[in-house]
User: Which sequence fits this backbone?
């Protein structure tokens, strides 16, 4: 039986194995610091489609199909597909599930969706509800920008504290058995709101959610940052990472060299994304390629993925509401 530890953390008895992972990324992402880890790269961010939204769907389809192909699996081998995106009503994930004819669990955690999908899937498998599940999450800069902020044709100047929504989709396949790293613990975060209203300032809005989840997890498990080879937040960017460090420092919790933020690390400084990457695809493509590569090669043996999500909508933003955020956590271990 899965065991609850403390207030928010669950230790899984039957630890699901991540037997396969992969990503399909855009051109800007492909020339960033993780270029050596991205094998599947789009020739164009339009993916041969007439709209950005339909192009985003193609990224999802390509990430899933390439991951299945590389692992000699078929969509019929999957019990479920769990995932989502940040477009209205999860259209990218919905249409992908339609085309692949896989039983579908759509989830929305904004940019935290990859960790949320992994945690839900791990819980399903560990509880015996399914034996093989695909976790699929992504985003597209252009579709997200014009949904949440401004039409691209407007050509507005972005503030220096903003981030760049990642174009790409990441996929992980979890199984009840097989070879690979395992998900040993999961923790679903509480919704946190520190009153940030600026939708360009995602790092400041989301950092408190990462703080609350990480602090709770450390208390629940009686561990600290030094107990892990890597602690990776999803997409706080440089500014948000600094805020997270400061918040934890006040509780005498120090994030050292084993801490990274997927968004802060996704682009090079000369790519002028200011604070780095964001979007549901940000942690998805970094985790399913770079981090999984390091886990499989035993460079990392104990990893925390803490993906954060800003849960605003175009409606709440227009009405002047503050931005509620959440952070979900999964612990991945080599056994």
Assistant:
């Amino acid at each position: 039986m899965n065991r609850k530890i403390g207030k928010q953390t669950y230790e899984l008895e039957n630890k699901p194995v991540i037997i396969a992972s992969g990503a399909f990324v855009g051109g800007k992402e492909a020339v960033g610091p993780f270029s050596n880890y991205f094998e599947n790269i789009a020739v164009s961010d339009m993916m041969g489609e007439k709209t950005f939204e339909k192009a985003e769907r193609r990224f999802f389809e390509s990430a899933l199909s390439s991951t299945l192909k590389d692992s000699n699996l078929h969509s019929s081998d999957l019990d479920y597909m769990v995932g989502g995106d940040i477009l209205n009503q999860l259209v990218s994930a919905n249409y992908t599930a339609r085309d692949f004819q896989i039983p579908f669990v759509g989830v929305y955690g904004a940019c935290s969706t990859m960790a949320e999908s992994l945690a839900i899937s791990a819980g399903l498998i560990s509880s015996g509800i399914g034996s093989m599940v695909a976790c699929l999450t992504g985003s597209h800069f252009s579709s997200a920008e014009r949904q949440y902020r401004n039409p691209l044709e407007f050509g507005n100047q972005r503030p220096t504290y903003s981030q760049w929504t990642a174009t790409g989709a990441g996929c992980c396949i979890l199984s009840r058995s097989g070879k690979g790293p395992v998900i040993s613990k999961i923790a679903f975060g509480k919704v946190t709101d520190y009153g940030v209203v600026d939708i360009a300032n995602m790092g400041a809005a989301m950092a408190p959610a990462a703080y609350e989840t990480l602090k709770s997890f450390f208390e629940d498990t009686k561990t600290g940052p030094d107990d892990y080879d890597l602690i990776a937040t999803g997409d706080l960017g440089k500014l948000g990472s600094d805020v997270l460090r400061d918040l934890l420092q006040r509780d005498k919790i120090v994030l050292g060299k084993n801490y990274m933020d997927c968004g802060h690390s996704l682009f090079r400084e000369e790519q002028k994304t200011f604070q780095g990457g964001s979007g549901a695809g940000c942690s998805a493509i970094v985790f399913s390629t770079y981090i999984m590569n390091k886990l499989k090669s035993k460079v990392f043996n104990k990893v925390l993925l803490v993906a954060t999500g800003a849960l605003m909508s175009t409606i709440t933003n227009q009405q002047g509401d503050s931005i509620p955020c959440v952070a979900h956590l999964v612990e991945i271990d080599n056994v």
